[in-house]
Amino acid sequence: MFKHLREEIDGIMARDPAARSRLEVALCYPGLHAIVLHRVARRARDAGWHLAARLVSQVARSLTGIEIHPGATIGRRFFIDHGMGVVIGETAEIGDDVMLYHGVTLGGTSLNPGKRHPTLGDGVIVGAGAKILGAITIGRGARIGANAVVVADVAADTAVVGIPAKPVVPRDRAETRKFLPYGTPCGDIPDPVARALSGLLDQVTALQARVGELEGEPSGRRGAAPTPDRPPHLPHIETETMPARNGGLHEAQGETR
Ligand SMILES: CC(C)(COP(=O)(O)OP(=O)(O)OC[C@H]1O[C@@H](n2cnc3c(N)ncnc32)[C@H](O)[C@@H]1OP(=O)(O)O)[C@@H](O)C(=O)NCCC(=O)NCCS
């Protein structure tokens, strides 16, 4: 059960520049403690001691913030950096040399008691906060961006980001790219709230143009002319109506006092 411990410690030292000695890794790395306890839990489960297995898993969760179901199948040199908020479901399968950061979920999307959690190929790296959901396959060497939500298979050697996750690096570039553990770059992150607001603004502009047409005026005159204070894409608001509204609000507040 502990025969791979040394190579796991060496694997952590190779992948975490902050690790200074084997003793430090053995004492201070919750990812290592979680995997050691998982192997105990897995042994207990294979022996038919399901409750004992779950209890060991719960102890590991309390100590490390990493919840690994005893049924999960995990390869060699598995490394969870930082721990905390990691959930690995019962039918998840993880290859060799896989690395997860904190906040990662390998979760299910159905109540089907069969295979319902992801399969991660060898060398997969999953960024902080990423969720990989369902009985999907993440190909060997793929990289999952921080905070991505992955709901479909990912090809080998592909980096994916966003919600839902999409490839960002062409596959022919993938082999030449290096994973930068702490180098998550800033970029045009596909934020769903920003996308929804942008859609609403488009609808307001279209409605404004339509009202202009219905009133028999050219839509260009209806749309507010851009001013330094107001970007051209924002809808025009008749400011003379505002005092009446504010007055109404004060009256309403007065009534409730
Ligand atoms: C996804 C990842 C592996 C890609 O790394 P990479 O191959 O070096 O890719 P790049 O840095 O060239 O980025 C490629 C594009 O994806 C965007 N991108 C990168 N990571 C992203 C993320 N997590 N979410 C959204 N977009 C992201 C970049 O802005 C860039 O966009 P652009 O082409 O429009 O400029 C990496 O950015 C990542 O998220 N790593 C996780 C790191 C982590 O979790 N660290 C925790 C340490 S505690």
Automatic annotation (TrEMBL):
<protein>
    <recommendedName>
        <fullName>serine O-acetyltransferase</fullName>
        <ecNumber>2.3.1.30</ecNumber>
    </recommendedName>
</protein>
<dbReference type="InterPro" id="IPR018357">
    <property type="entry name" value="Hexapep_transf_CS"/>
</dbReference>
<keyword id="KW-0012">Acyltransferase</keyword>
<dbReference type="InterPro" id="IPR001451">
    <property type="entry name" value="Hexapep"/>
</dbReference>
<dbReference type="InterPro" id="IPR053376">
    <property type="entry name" value="Serine_acetyltransferase"/>
</dbReference>
<feature type="compositionally biased region" description="Basic and acidic residues">
    <location>
        <begin position="230"/>
        <end position="239"/>
    </location>
</feature>
<comment type="similarity">
    <text>Belongs to the transferase hexapeptide repeat family.</text>
</comment>
<dbReference type="InterPro" id="IPR011004">
    <property type="entry name" value="Trimer_LpxA-like_sf"/>
</dbReference>
<dbReference type="InterPro" id="IPR042122">
    <property type="entry name" value="Ser_AcTrfase_N_sf"/>
</dbReference>
<dbReference type="InterPro" id="IPR045304">
    <property type="entry name" value="LbH_SAT"/>
</dbReference>
<dbReference type="InterPro" id="IPR005881">
    <property type="entry name" value="Ser_O-AcTrfase"/>
</dbReference>
<feature type="region of interest" description="Disordered">
    <location>
        <begin position="212"/>
        <end position="257"/>
    </location>
</feature>
<keyword id="KW-0028">Amino-acid biosynthesis</keyword>
<dbReference type="GO" id="GO:0009001">
    <property type="term" value="F:serine O-acetyltransferase activity"/>
</dbReference>
<dbReference type="Pfam" id="PF00132">
    <property type="entry name" value="Hexapep"/>
</dbReference>
<keyword id="KW-0677">Repeat</keyword>
<keyword id="KW-0808">Transferase</keyword>
